Amino acid sequence: MTVMVILHHTAITYGAPGGWFWTELKPSATPTSLLLTLFVSTNQAYFMGFFFFLAGYFTPASLERKGYARFICDRFLRLGLPLLAFGLILGPLTAAMVNYAQGDGFWVVFPWLWRHRQFINGPLWFAQALLIFSLAYCLWRAVAGAPLPQTQRTPRPVPAGRWWLLSALAVGFSALAIRQFVPVGVNIFGLQLGYFASYIFLFAVGIAAWRYDWLRQLTRKNARAGIVALSIAWPLFLIAVAAAIKLSGPGKSNFAGGLSWAAIFYALWEPFVAWGLTAAWLLVFRAHMNQPSAFWDWLNRRAYAVYILHPPVLVCVALLMHGWAAPALVKFGVVGVLACIATWLVSDPFVRLPGVRRVV
C-alpha cells in the first residue's frame, strides 16, 4: 500500500488530477491522462481507507495492552512527531526544491512559509487524522466502552453481503452530504473532510474486525457481494468521465461537490470500489504473501519511514528526469519505480538510528 501511495503521487506528477508539490503535466482529455485519472481515482477510493482500517484493527489491542496514558503518549510519539518533522522540515524542503527548479530560489521558501504561518502536512495528514481518531477512540472507550481489563475478543460471523451493500450506500450518501459543505479538494486544517465518511467508517470497521475476529473468518463467499459490486462499479468510472467530457467538456463537470449527477455518482462509486478492493487485497495477501521472508521483513520495517520521506525523494527524481523527452506513461513507470527504490534505500539508515527507530 505504501508503494501505491508513491505511484499515486507519481501519477499526479504526469497528468492525473490531485494536489502535489510538483506537476509536470496537467490533467487533460488525452488517453494517458484518463488512464492515470482512473488509477488515482481508484486509489483514492480505497487505499487511505484501507490504511485506516488496518490502523483500527490494531488499535484496541494496543490500548488494552498499554493503558490510556502510555497508548496516548505512544500515539503522539509515532504520529505527532513525524507530523511536526514533515511540517517543519520535509514539507518546506520539498516546496523549496520545486521553487528552485522553477527559478524562484531555494531559501526564500522557508521565511515565506514562516511569515504566512503555512504548515505543510503533505501526506502526513494521515498521521494527523489517525491521531485524532485514536484520541476519539480513547474517549469513547473511557466514557461508553468496557473497562480495559475486562475486554476480550468475541468471534462473530462476518456480516452478510446485504450489510456490505447497505453500508456502501450509507457511506456514499454521507460523503455526498459532507461535500455539500466541504467539496473534495478543500482542506480544513489540512484535512480533506470530503473523504472522511469512508475513513471514519473503515477505522470503526477495523476495530470491530479485531473484536469479532473477522479477518481470520473472511472468505471469498463472505466478500462476494463486495467484489461483485466492485466489478460492476469500477468500469463505470470511465463511462462517467467520458459522459462528462461529452456533455460539458474536459474538466468542466463537478465531481467534487454539489448535487450534480457527477458528484452523486462519484460519492456513491467510491465505497462500492473500496469495500471490494479492500476485501480482495486482504484475501490475496493472506493467501499468497503471508509467508516468512527476509526481504519482505526488510520492506515492511521501512514502510512507515518511506511513507514519511517519499515526497522529497519523489520530487527530486521527477525533477532530475524533467528534461527527458518521453511519453508521460513511460515517465510515470520509470520515475515511480526509481522513486520507490530510492525512498526505501534512503529510509534504511533512519530506521537504524537508536532514537529515530522508536518513532518510525
Structural class: mainly alpha
Give the number of helices. 11
Give the biggest sheet: none
The poorly predicted ranges are none
β-strand percent reads under 5%
Q: Radius of gyration in whole Å, from Cα?
A: 21 Å
Provide the helix percentage: over 70%
Number of separate strands = 0
Mean pLDDT: 93
State the shape. globular
- Give the SSE string: HHHHHHHHHHH
> Span from first to last CA?
17 Å
SSE arrangement:
Elements: H1 2-13, H2 31-101, H3 109-115, H4 125-143, H5 161-179, H6 196-211, H7 214-217, H8 220-248, H9 261-288, H10 294-320, H11 328-350
Helix pairs in contact: 1-2, 1-10, 1-11, 2-4, 2-6, 2-9, 2-10, 5-6, 5-8, 5-9, 8-9, 10-11
Structure explained in plain terms:
- By secondary structure, this protein is mainly alpha-helical.
- Helices cover 71% and strands 0% of the residues.
- α2 crosses α9.
- The model has no long low-confidence stretch (mean pLDDT 93).
Quick overview of this protein structure:
The protein has about 350 residues and is an all-alpha fold. It has 11 helices and no strands.
Spell out the key features of this protein:
single chain, 360 residues, mainly alpha, 11 helices, globular
